[in-house]
Amino acid sequence: MTEATIFTATPDSDTLGGRLSRARDASGMSAAQFARRLGVKTATVQAWESDRSEPRANRLSMIAGILNVSMPWLLHGVGEAPPDDPRNDAITILRGQVDKLRQLHEDTGATLSRIEDELLRLQRRSDI
After folding, report:
1. DSSP 8-state assignment for residue 15
2. Which of 29, 30, 32, 37 could cross-link 95 (Cys pair, CB 3.0–4.6 Å)?
């Protein structure tokens, strides 16, 4: 009889970003909260979770610790996945939407400031 190990089970076929997102959701943290704990920008976490980039090796251990998952599961989908709590689904979705709206609000404010500055610059130039 073969002893069961983490390597005898079928690996999680999700990507690193997908596993990271699932683990963060299971922890109940928003992307912004997770980013603050890691000392990175929310956009960095979002890029990791959407597989547009990957965390550096020195961050992976920290990520696994914060999210309470194993490194093999996080990197390769081997081992035990964090439990999915269906009650967190609605909360997680709403938190994600609020985070996106906050980011859009900040981006809009920054864009408005740049447009106003450019308008003032052009107005001063035409007054000369």
Report:
1. -
2. 30
